[in-house]
Predict the 3D structure of the following.
Amino acid sequence: MAKKRKRIRRTPTGIYSGKSYKKPLWMRIVRIIAMFIIGGLMIIVIIYKAWQYFKIVNQ
């Protein structure tokens, strides 16, 4: 955080400066999987809250 430069991405293999560097395919796959996991967790949380609300209403 000490140096402020635009367009530097930290990756497992090192530091690449922005424009010319294309992300490898596995990084894209990992990001897609992470987004799916986060979305699934959000859906589970919403269902859980709705289920709690439903139980409170039914008492």
Q: What stands out?
A: The longest strand covers residues 8-11. The radius of gyration is 20 Å.
